[in-house]
Design brief:
five-stranded parallel sheet; about 35% helix; globular; alpha/beta; single chain; 20 helices
Length: about 500
C-alpha cells in the first residue's frame, strides 16, 4: 500500500471539491454524481513509525476531505442510517448542516443524542451499525463504500473541541432530586449527562483514580487519546456532575447504603465488565501469563509505555502470543509491539472471515507486523524450572458447521498439537461482569455469568436501581453502552418527575 500524507490527501480532496462545486453551480449535482465521488481515505501514521510511539494512528480527515466525504451522502428521506445507530443520531440532518458550512450547528445536532462524538467517531464499529444501513453503500454493493459517518462525526467533534466552540446543553431547573451513578464508562457518563440535563444532582462513583472506565483503562492511546476522554469528563463537570474517584461501590459503600443512608433517590449501575475470562488450560499460573484486561490497564491507565514518567511494572516480552480475535486482542497485540516485543502473534481458533475485530483494526495490526495464526487454540502453557513461560502448546482446527452466532465452528484435528515457542501469553477472550455488586446487594438478580438482569427500561430487580452497558450486556461496544445509559436515564427521569 502507498502511504500518502494528510497534505496530499487534502490537496486531492480540494481539487475534487472544486469540481463538485462547479457541478452544483450548474445544477448538475445529483445522486449519480454523488455515487461517483470516491470514498475518502483516512490519513494514518506510517506503520514503520507508529510502532515506535503511542500517538494516534488514524489522524482524522482534513477539512477538504471531510467536506468532500459529506457530499457523498444521498440525503435519503427514510434515513436508514439512523435506525442503525444505537443512540439514534439524526445523521442526514447533521451532514446537511455541515455541507452548508454550519460546523457548530452540525456538532450540536450530533450532541442532541450523543455526548461522546469524539470517542464514538474513533472506536465505534460504524460499519456494523449506521454505515451498514447506508443507502450509498448498498447502491455500490459494499458497506466499505458507505458514507464515512463516524469519520465525519469525529471531524466535527475535534473541530468543536479545538476551536473552543463547544457549548454546554441547556439544563432544566434544579429538581432537588439526587442520583448516584456507579461507574464512569460510556454508559455511566451518558446516563449522568442526561440526568444532569433534567436538573437532578448527579454523583458518579468511580473505582479507579481517573474517570472514563474502559475508555481510559482498556482502549490504547493510539486508538483513543486520553486527553479526549478528559475533555468529555470535564464537560460533564461543567454541567454540575460530581465525580468521586477511588470509590468502590460494594466496598466503600454498598448500593443499599447509598440509597437508604446517603439519600440518593435513584441509582444507575454502569460498572462495566471487568472480570476477565481465562484460557482454562494448564500453566495459566506461570510468570508471563496475563489477561488483556490487566495488560492494557497497566499500559494505558498506568502508562507503562512511558517508563521515564511512570514506575509501572510490566512483563518484558520478546515473543508474545495473544489468544483471541476481538478488538481487545488487536489492542493488546499492537501495544505489545510498542512495548518492545520482537514478535507478536494473534492465536485465533477460527478463520479470518469469522474474526470479530473491526476490519480496520485487523488491517492496522497486520500493517504493523502482527502475525495471525488462524485455526489454532491452546492446549497448555509450557514453562521452565523457574516458573516462566517458554511456549504454548497449540492444537490445529478446521471449520465445521455454523453455530448459534452464525460463524462456522472450529473442529479440533486430533494429533495436530505442536509447540509454539514464546515467553508471554495474553488471554483476550472477553470479560464478564464483576460479581462484587451482586454479592454485596441483596436481591439484585443476575444471570449465570454475573450480568445484571433488567427489563426494557433498564430497571433491575431492585426498586429505584437501574443498570446498563457492559454490566448488563457483557463486553460490548461504546455506543451500545451509551444507548443503554440513555434509556436508563430516561426511565429515571420519568420516575423522579414531580
Amino acid at each position: 500500500m502507498v502511504w500518502r500524507n494528510r497534505e496530499d490527501l487534502e490537496s486531492l480532496a480540494a481539487a475534487r471539491l472544486k469540481d463538485i462545486r462547479e457541478l452544483e453551480a450548474r445544477g448538475k449535482l445529483g445522486n449519480r454524481e454523488r455515487l461517483a465521488i470516491p470514498l475518502q481515505e483516512m490519513p494514518v501514521q506510517d506503520p514503520h513509525e507508529r510502532v515506535k510511539n503511542v500517538g494516534e494512528v488514524a489522524l482524522g480527515y482534513g477539512e477538504n476531505q471531510a467536506r468532500l466525504e459529506a457530499e457523498r451522502c444521498l440525503s435519503c428521506r427514510d434515513a436508514p442510517c439512523i435506525e442503525g445507530c444505537p443512540v439514534q443520531v439524526p445523521i442526514p440532518r447533521f451532514i446537511a448542516e455541515f455541507r452548508k458550512g454550519g460546523y457548530a450547528a452540525a456538532a450540536a445536532i450530533i450532541k442532541e443524542n450523543n455526548l461522546l462524538p469524539a470517542v464514538c467517531g474513533r472506536v465505534c464499529p460504524q460499519e456494523n451499525q449506521c454505515q451498514a444501513r447506508c443507502t450509498l453503500g448498498k447502491s455500490l454493493k459494499s458497506v466499505e463504500k458507505a458514507v464515512s459517518i463516524g469519520r465525519l462525526e469525529r471531524f466535527l467533534a475535534d473541530w468543536e473541541r479545538e476551536s473552543g466552540a463547544a457549548a454546554l446543553p441547556e439544563l432544566s431547573p434544579p429538581t432537588g432530586r439526587r442520583v448516584a451513578v456507579v461507574g464512569s464508562g460510556p454508559a455511566g457518563l451518558t446516563a449522568a449527562a442526561d440526568l444532569a440535563r433534567a436538573g437532578h444532582g448527579v454523583t458518579v462513583f468511580e473505582a479507579f483514580h481517573r474517570p472514563g472506565g474502559v475508555m481510559v483503562y482498556g482502549i490504547p492511546e493510539f486508538r483513543l487519546p486520553k486527553s479526549i476522554v478528559e475533555a468529555e469528563v470535564s464537560a460533564l463537570g461543567r454541567l454540575g456532575v460530581v465525580f468521586e474517584t477511588n470509590f468502590l461501590v460494594g466496598r466503600t459503600r454498598t448500593v443499599r447504603e447509598l440509597l437508604d443512608e446517603d439519600g440518593y433517590d435513584a441509582l444507575f449501575i454502569g460498572a462495566g465488565a471487568g472480570l476477565p475470562r481465562f484460557l482454562g488450560v494448564p500453566g495459566e499460573n506461570l510468570v508471563g501469563v496475563s489477561s488483556a484486561n490487566e495488560y492494557l490497564t497497566r499500559a494505558n491507565l498506568m502508562k507503562a509505555y512511558d517508563p521515564r514518567r511512570a514506575a509501572t511494572p510490566i512483563y518484558n516480552s520478546r515473543v508474545v502470543a495473544v489468544v483471541g480475535g476481538g478488538n481487545v486482542a488487536m489492542d493488546a497485540a499492537r501495544m505489545a509491539l510498542r512495548l518492545g516485543a520482537e514478535e507478536v502473534h494473534i492465536v485465533y481458533r477460527r478463520g479470518p472471515e469469522e474474526m470479530p475485530a473491526r476490519a480496520e483494526e485487523i488491517d492496522h495490526a497486520r500493517e504493523e507486523g502482527v502475525e495471525f495464526d488462524y485455526l489454532r487454540n491452546p492446549v497448555r502453557i509450557v514453562g521452565d524450572k523457574d516458573g516462566r513461560v517458554t511456549g504454548l502448546e497449540l492444537r490445529k482446527y478446521e471449520l465445521g458447521a455454523s453455530d448459534a452466532s452464525g460463524r462456522r465452528s472450529p473442529v479440533a484435528l486430533p494429533g495436530s498439537e505442536y509447540l509454539f515457542p514464546c515467553d508471554t501469553v495474553i488471554a483476550a477472550l472477553g470479560n464478564d461482569a464483576n460479581p462484587l455488586l451482586v454479592r454485596t446487594t441483596g436481591n439484585l438478580k443476575a444471570d449465570d455469568r454475573g450480568r445484571i438482569i433488567v427489563d426494557g427500561e433498564q430497571r433491575s430487580s431492585l426498586d429505584r436501581v437501574y443498570a446498563g452497558g457492559d454490566t448488563v450486556l457483557g463486553a460490548a461496544t461504546v455506543i451500545l453502552a451509551m444507548g443503554e445509559g440513555r434509556k436508563a436515564a430516561a426511565a429515571i427521569n420519568r420516575l423522579l418527575k414531580p
